Amino acid sequence: MQENFQQTLEQIFELIEEKKYALVRTELLQCNEADIGEILEEVDEELGAEKAVILFRLLPKDISAVVFSYISSDCQRDIVNGITVKEVQNVMEEMSFDDMIDVLEELPANVVDKILMRTDKETRKLINQFLNYPESSAGSLMTIDYIGLKKEMTVGKALSYIKVHGMDQETVYTCYVMDSQRHLEGIVSLRTLVVSDDEEEIEDLMHEDFISVNVMDDREDVAQLFQKYDYLALPVVDKENRLVGIITFDDIMDVIEEENTEDFERMAGVFDDSDKDYFNLSVGQHIKNRLPWLLLMSVSLMITGAILTRFEALLSQVISLVSYLPLLMGTGGNSGSQAATLIIRGMTVGDVELKDAGKVLWKEIRISFIIGLVLSALNFAKILFLDGQPVLIALTVCSALLSVVMFAKVLGGMLPMAAKKLGIDPALMATPLISSITDMVSALLYFILASLILGL
Amino acid sequence: MQENFQQTLEQIFELIEEKKYALVRTELLQCNEADIGEILEEVDEELGAEKAVILFRLLPKDISAVVFSYISSDCQRDIVNGITVKEVQNVMEEMSFDDMIDVLEELPANVVDKILMRTDKETRKLINQFLNYPESSAGSLMTIDYIGLKKEMTVGKALSYIKVHGMDQETVYTCYVMDSQRHLEGIVSLRTLVVSDDEEEIEDLMHEDFISVNVMDDREDVAQLFQKYDYLALPVVDKENRLVGIITFDDIMDVIEEENTEDFERMAGVFDDSDKDYFNLSVGQHIKNRLPWLLLMSVSLMITGAILTRFEALLSQVISLVSYLPLLMGTGGNSGSQAATLIIRGMTVGDVELKDAGKVLWKEIRISFIIGLVLSALNFAKILFLDGQPVLIALTVCSALLSVVMFAKVLGGMLPMAAKKLGIDPALMATPLISSITDMVSALLYFILASLILGL
What we know:
homodimer, 456 residues, mainly alpha, MgtE N-terminal fold, CBS-domain, Tetracycline Repressor, domain 2, 3-stranded mixed β-sheet, elongated
């Protein structure tokens, strides 16, 4: 199937080169909208925005709207810059409401203004309201295209209503029952309607113990509700419990992907607040996203350096101590990241909660003690027999190794939980920070133990 | 809402303590099945398996089956051990087919045998077939509870069929049109049926250019199809294009979560093939998951140590060189992980492809050159003015720093792509490995530059 797609792509590139646009159109119309979107992005990237605009104009209005909602914001901008405001307007009108809002959020302000000028007052007000929801809120994920029913309706009447209005909605599979003031009273699935008799009343079929979210709820919390309850859609209400819109599972899949990406990046010390992909970020933006954390970490690495300087006298007496520093620091960092990653991820998916801190502590102490012992024993033998160092050196290195592994794992387990308690994103407590701290502590511990054991 | 849940939980714990089980039942039945599952898990964990079994027995048969599919496999095992095989059998019969298979996969073989003995031959054969699909395959995610239609049917007839059979199926929102040999000919959504006239024929309404997956396809690829096309369900066919089952989006949400967790863990050098959560893994299993990678990394850290030993003579001449080692190694590791994480994630979500290797290389060279310059300039000033070191030492450290940052970022960008090319999981090329390699290279580069610049 993917191979077929590659073939189609190559064929379309050839046809564009030969300027056989009628054939390009025929080819395109045989593809799924998501695939047309991908083709459009490839054309935009490889052959330039002009060709992408030509391709886009080949599409029928209804298809072009769906395709437009699939492509990246950069590609959207290229298209918008190449077509007239009237054409943009046409595309917008065919799009579902939530996709339209997503597009408007990414477009330059002057284009948005031009589009808004051409819409009627009512729509303009609604669009402005939606554009004002914070990006991290449930409101920013909503659509207003849903089926609203009244509880006095019979199943037959509800189905006739859906028959007329069903095609324009984001989903018809969950319907929302409201009173005359739009207060949400219940939800009923299309499945229930279809298996029930025409004379039954909605009131007797609807679920009244539904779950809803507030427009200002955090979208990450909304995603967790979807994952827990396996819903297709969730209703969004305002403070007065009036239905404002719905969120569907497909938008949530995107949220989950974005949130995971953010966690991966933060755990590696990359701070990108743009949702842009690797290639769409300029060199300057990449530097802006990466340099601050490296600078911060280099301060802590300087402190570790200062600790080494402080023990220069000791080091110059037993220079061979230096060669075990990488082992201590590296193993400390790696041990700490393992624990930190497991706890950060555990908290994200809900397996680990703040009240479990004691259990985490006790578990990490036992794990790290055994891992530390195994690593120390192996290294003791290696230092003694392979490196030919005196017993006291081996003892110094290995007691430091055991302490460092235990310290690192306990720190790795506790720091993300402490962060969450303080309202800081636990993902910040990952490898770079943990290994910087364990570097410092390794150096200190090592030299203190060396002074004691070697009597220097 | 979450607060309400906490309250309910506490209340139920109190009622259990007072042995007021009739009231516990009333409380439970007011909750959603997913919430009852969470309560059951809490009881199992805090009050022991016996109490969990009592709670489970309080539930009506149909609800207990749904709840059973929500709880963790450990909790499932506790329940199964506490109830009779006949009771297990009853629960299984009420469960949807794919949930039942999931449960059977986790149960001990003797219990599975007892259950299979009590089912009819047909079902037993089907269950055995499903149990044999590899865990990573599309087959293992399938359910057989779907609506199958014939293309000669009218919409009215199809809707009557759904009216009778709709409640027992996993989903009714996508229906599957097959010929008499079960070859999949098309799909039609319930939405289309509901908005169409009763006399229309399925043949004229169904989509024939549907996307299907094969039973043996990798579940990660299936998840990507769901994310790309926003489907509710996908049909699964065998080699002869006969419909074997369907996969629904809720199972895919679980796959996405598991795959992300696996990536997070692998990127930190934790190898867990069990899908168990942090607390359900014993101390021994945690050690088994973490120790191998730490051992492997300690070998490379020993090599770095050996490099330091090799340059001991140089070091004892200019002992102050030692204090800049942490800065070089740490910054190298952090720079490399940033690039590696961005590329690994980019490949997972499909933003970065193997053919982009040249573009990644060129981008990372520019980014790392500027970041390296900034870091070097700042450190040059610090070493000269704050530490009071000679210019040549500052020059040595800073030229090493620039080279290390550039090397680390290019390595971080290229290594995951090379891994993918070779069929190795790119997630293995993350922090621990990258920082081990940059540690070695930092040490080597540093001392070679020192020998050259300081003329030692």
